[in-house]
Amino acid sequence: MTTRPMTAEPPLMLDLEPDTVPPLVAVRQWAARALSDLGEDHLVAVQLVATELLSNAYEHAGGAHQLRLRRLREPCRTVIEVDDGSDEQPTVVRERDPRVAGGRGLAMVDKLSSAWGSRPRSGGGKTVWGTIDCTVYPWDRCL
Known about the structure:
alpha+beta, HATPase_dom, kinase, Heat Shock Protein 90, 143 residues
């Protein structure tokens, strides 16, 4: 059996101001332009995970410093990474009162991502990441 190495393209980076929440529509548009060759379902999943990770960084970690998208063509995957300045690790709240707004962002990231997690950054803070793997779902193949 021959295995092909995973080759990633250079990351696509969006620098952010921690004190200013970016318009999430603009972030979704940036991702759509940057990843225009993804299948529609794969792109929507990337956009949702990116905006949820960003929203969490601004709500719980004092803002975000950078958003990165790492595209792997074989196998077809996109890794979304958000850097923030907090050392506190994210947690998924498993049960929410359906009458209460909010608190479902990481649960969505958990459902959409084939894997997700966080890692500390040198100098403080962390990177929270999620991987969208189009081979896991019956989506249209990417170009």
